[in-house]
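Case study 2.
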Amino acid sequence: MNLSRTYTFDEAQKKLERYCAYQERCHKEVTQKLYEMRMIPEARDQIIVHLLQHNFLNEERFAKAFVRGKFRIKKWGKQRLQLELKRRDINKTLINIALSEINESDYYSVFHALAEKKAETIKETNVLKKRKKLADYLLYRGWESPLVYEKIRELIP
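Prediction:
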């Protein structure tokens, strides 16, 4: 027996307003939430239009907040940020606008601090393995390859 809750149009709209007001959301997250609520396609479309008109949903604002937060807290590079935004179906123009928000000097200082901190914590004695571990770590976080390999040559001669 299926006990999942059903929602009226007004209940669903209010629930999605609160969902979007709590934290910036992208269209894909909102659409997924509406699918989970088992709303019919016409209701989904009307709710999304309502959220857009009343500024609960704004992809550019979402992209900027996402980039700022992930860069500042998780220290992700531009490659990873770009990939994660693409996964959320954000268009290329908005991705570029959001990435341009990152100050270049901050970007490089965060990269250098992160690389140096990680290099100190790697306990590997084999130089090649140590380089590989550092490279894997930085590349996974989305930092650009030329930047990573140049820093590795500098830190681990």
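Residues 52 and 58 are 7 Å apart (CA to CA).
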